[in-house]
């Protein structure tokens, strides 16, 4: 299946996309994001606030070792993570429903070669002070009775859409 070893992954060219987890409670969601980040060879994952960090058996259960291949950093405060990403040249999007948000399926231009997306807490979403620091908000169009999705499902959708835009 032409899978990379962890060492080959570390040396490989990365998709210039970072996922930021802002106070995500579920360790299974954290592991799932690592696994998706590995699948698309993302530049990294930032874990913020109460978000658990590897090594942890519950993260490993869904990450299946991706927590060893995908580079990650921890920040006590998500705001510090956003400042760091900006200093590294990233355009940072909060994935959140807000006034003036950009629909993920719209034809928006990727204005930066380095993108980061912030995914929020399973109940409260992305903290308002974090949204305020971001360069914009991305929103997944939804057509049913619910107006939210599981954070790991959201990560998969957003990563796939941005991966396609970055690879054009």
CATH architecture assignment: 3-Layer(aba) Sandwich
Count of domains: 1
- Element pattern in H and E: HEHEHHEHEEEHEH
Per CATH, the class reads Alpha Beta
Low-confidence stretches: none
CATH superfamily: SPOUT methyltransferase, trefoil knot domain
Largest sheet: 7 strands, parallel
Approximate shape? globular
State Rg.
15 Å
Strand order of the largest sheet: 3-2-1-6-4-7-5
Percent in strands: 15-25%
- What's the total number of strands? 7
What class, by secondary structure content? alpha/beta
State the share of residues found in helices, binned by percent: 25-40%
Instruction: Classify the fold: give the CATH topology.
Output: Alpha/beta knot
User: What's the rounded overall pLDDT mean?
Assistant: 95
Query: Helix count?
Result: 7
Task: Please summarize what this structure is.
The chain is of the alpha/beta class and 168 residues long.
Give a verbal description of the structure.
This protein has 7 helices and 7 strands. It has 168 residues and is of the alpha/beta class. The protein has a single domain, classed as SPOUT methyltransferase, trefoil knot domain (Alpha/beta knot, 3-Layer(aba) Sandwich), CATH 3.40.1280.10. Strands 3-2-1-6-4-7-5 form a 7-stranded parallel β-sheet, sandwiched between helices. Strand 1, helix 2 (27-39) and strand 2 (42-48) form a beta-alpha-beta unit. The protein is globular, with a radius of gyration of 15 Å.
């Amino acid at each position: 299946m032409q899978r990379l070893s962890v060492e080959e992954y570390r040396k490989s060219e990365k998709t210039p996309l970072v996922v930021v987890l802002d106070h995500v409670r579920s360790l299974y969601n954290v592991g799932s994001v690592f696994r998706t980040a590995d699948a698309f060879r993302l530049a990294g994952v930032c874990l913020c606030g109460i978000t658990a960090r590897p090594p942890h058996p519950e993260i490993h259960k869904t990450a299946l070792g991706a927590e060893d291949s995908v580079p990650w950093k921890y920040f006590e405060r998500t705001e510090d993570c956003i400042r760091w990403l900006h200093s590294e040249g990233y355009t940072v999007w909060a994935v959140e429903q807000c006034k003036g948000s950009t629909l993920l399926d719209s034809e928006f231009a990727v204005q930066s070669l380095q993108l980061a997306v912030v995914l929020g807490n399973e109940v409260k979403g992305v903290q308002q002070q974090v949204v305020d620091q971001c360069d914009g908000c991305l929103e997944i169009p939804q057509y049913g009775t619910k107006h939210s999705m599981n954070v790991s499902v959201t990560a998969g959708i957003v990563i796939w859409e941005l991966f396609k835009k970055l690879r054009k």
